[in-house]
Amino acid sequence: MCMSSGHIWRENYEGGNPEAEALLFAELARDIMDVQLANRANARASDISRAFHAKCILGVDNAKLQILPNIPEDLEVGFFERGKQYDVTVRLSNANGVRQADFKKDMRGIALRVKVSENEYHDFLATNFPVSHARNAYQFVAFAKAMSGSKLLLLPRLVLAVGFSETLRMLRNVLRGARVVDSLATEGYWSRGALLWGNEAGPVRFLLRPSAKTTAAKPASATDPDFLHREIAERLREGPVEFDFLLQRYVDEKLTPIEDGAVEWTEDASRPIGVATLTIPSQDIDAAPGRAMERLVDQLGFNPWNTTETFRPLGNLNRVRKAAYTASSAHRLNQRFRERKPLRNIVIARAVAALFKAINAHVPWYRFGWRMSLLNISILREELRTKNLFDTELPDAPPQATPQPPVIPEAVRTQRTFDGTYNDLSNPRMGAEGATFGRTMRAVYKPELFGQPNPIEVSRQLMTRKAFIPARSLNVLAAAWIQFQVHDWVNHKRHSLGNAETDIALRMPNGELWKSTTGGQPEAFMRIAGNEVFRMAAGGYPIFKNMTTPWWDGSEVYGNTAEKALDLRDGGRLKLTEDLYLPTELNGMNVTGFNESWWLGLSMMHTLFAREHNVLAEALMREYPDWEPDRIYNTARLIVSALIAKIHTIEWTPAILATRAIKVGLPANWYGAPKDWLTQLGIWMLDTHELKGIPQTVPDHHGIPYSLTEEFVSVYRLHPLIPDDYQFFNYETGARTETLGFADIQGAGTDAKMRHLRLHNVIYSLGIAHPGAITLHNYPNALRQFKRMSGDVEEIIDLSVVDIVRDRHRGIPRFNDFREALHKPRLSNWEELSSDPETVRAMQVLYGNIDMVDTMVGLHSEPPPDGFGFSDTAFRVFILMASRRLQSDRFLTVDFRPEIYSPLGLDWIENNGMTSIILRHCPQLAPVLPRTASAFAPFRPILS
Fold first, then answer.
1. How high is the pLDDT of residue 684?
2. What phi and psi, each to the nearest 5 degrees, are found at residue 884?
3. CB-based contact 573:633 (threshold 8 Å)
4. Of 422, 633, 716, 779, which one is the catalytic site residue?
5. Can you give the pTM of this predicted structure?
6. Rounded to the nearest 5 degrees, what angle is found at the Cα of 248, between the Cα atoms of 242 and 249?
7. In angstroms, rounded to a whole number, what is the distance separating the alpha carbons of residues 289 and 592?
8. Domain ranges (residues) in the chain
9. How many other C-beta atoms can be found within 10 angstroms of the C-beta atom of residue 933?
């Protein structure tokens, strides 16, 4: 509740609060984009137009707003200073969402953009009827949707949406307002919604009236579809067009309501007060400069929220305008995208989903043949997209004014930024460094249970590797690869160790002692550096920032800041030593985009892809000799990043999830559905979108802004893949050269080992070795006393304990809740978790209650489907997020095209994979690489 000039006024939010209203309005904004798609179809147009006011009659940027010298003192607010003059952009238009003839009945509109300075603009929007047909946001969108469809169904659609009496009222207002006019220069225009005019004056509405000097127009033409433009063009050739700018003050909720847009603020209730004049100067708008100016003006996205808080728009209709107009403008300008599902897909998919839900209660999806499994996965993924995506970013609630209308830097249209901004041009901060981790399910945050049972005891009894359990279908390249990827996607910021307020202290069992830092004193506690909490959510759980960019942008190689990237560059290339290895820091660590938890497997991947970048840069320089180094570098970075995404999608994932359904389904994400008629028919009926590969589609965020989730981080902790000891061989003779422990090939010693062993021998040696299976009792012992630098301190951590602690402190539900949230049945007996009686007994003693089992323990104990390297529960998070990482990314969808990547670049991505990259840089390995499998399958060992 507020008071201005003695009047009490208030704003009421849909859903009871600004946050709930913001969620409702986000959905209405998507409805507005559907209206634009329907309008395009109705007009048989190729381009998306505005949802309203599609046809521009006049667009000029040289008008003037002159503030009157005698305005009332309380109305002299902000830039409205007596005697001041400002440049104004003006757009006059027909109100319909389809560009129709001027002689058709329609409402008309005016949009003004007042420039106060380079940092301050104010948009004012008005139409030539004093009252809105819609009382509120819901009616506004419902009417737009009804109007965009068949006119035969207009009445029943409106009645279903708003009721019979409101339908009649809305139609009556529209019929009164829609008319043929003689000239847009002789019309009056009303804001129809309130705005704040400083704290003292309070709410007002504004209107524009033709100046008293305005002459009458000739009668409207009944045949010329563009007569309104011709009329005002002729008028401007003869002299200026002028309007008076007036304000109406708020009186009370009955006479001048703020939240009900269907009530007119009559002049009897609130007398208009003149405060300024608007002058469009005499000019020839049909000459070349005028035509160019109109085209630029017509590209602008006017929004009443382009202003300052002093002039903040008020009321329900104005609040929805920010979301709706922003979405509509971005959609029109190809900055935001929307596709409508065919009705058959919606109807058939719902029926099939219900059928599979009944069947899956008895038979899991992976028990079917590959076609039925793929269909089941597709239905399950759609359910997860609908029910398991939760945004954690603070909404714009209530909406905030933005005095600088967004301007998109031209460079970001064709190249990735390093901090992840501007991937989505309509939401520049989405997926940027420092954006929050999303959620796949409701958090369960119970600090009182953080220590129950003791994570150290859980680790020792259930996770510790007693004997190495190999994953025989893979090689250690697969283990290095996923760590290489995770470093690109996720990174929680940690506090420095040694702060009593932020350290997590776990009591050591049995009176044991632990050193948490190199050179530190043994003590009765294991100390873990706590993560920095960004804020606490309304639900009482912590939200964390992702300190890297979650896009598939190769940030682990290139860095996620412009400064870091510049340090790694050498013109269009990346810096490498003369013998083509990564440079080394003073402490012996390799110089690359991200080198935390560094070991030989990561060094191998980073070296390989840094070399790939440089070979590609040289190819681009040969193909395009006129390109500057910046373009060479940025294009090569785009190509390498896309190639990494492709390798992960169609090579690594089918290797670790080795079933036919996955081997068909994951390549379909990249190339589209299999081309046999039966699969094509099934996809056509259920989801036409999947007929094409994701790179041939447009971005889709599935209802909420893109992010990676805390649950995604949990299921991608695949540390059991790492062996504790390694043998290295000469690739030519097969002779063993060294046997080393993990400690010998990690940290500051990594670089020396890489140079000594040589890249080709490292790839060969890791290629013939198996990683560990992702199961209980197989956590690498080397990671249970792992040393890593934290600032100037070398921490000693038990990573198996840290993994459990992180889940609990981040609000990851325990395993049974986790399963249920992913639409799997809860477990009721321990034997469902493990067939090993000893493991079952240990879990029973540790946890007591099956609902207390940690998610990581459950994920590692749950028997996976045949051929899978991890559990079905983990797979559900994977199928939700795997396609999302591609589908949300502009550079892997709508901008995956030769104009951005170059023809050479697209050919490079199409014709290359992990095997060809290895062969390009280590051609001597050709005889040992798998012939019919990916490079993540075991290589052929050479017998010495």
1. 86
2. -65, -35
3. yes
4. 716
5. 0.93
6. 150
7. 51
8. 2-332
9. 16
